[in-house]
Amino acid sequence: MPGLLRGVARTAVIAGTATSVSNRVSRRQGQRWARQEQEEYARAQQQQAAPPPPPPPQSSGGVDRLEALKQLGELKAQGVLTEAEFEAEKARILAG
Question: What is the arithmetic mean of pLDDT over 40-55?
Answer without folding.
Answer: 76
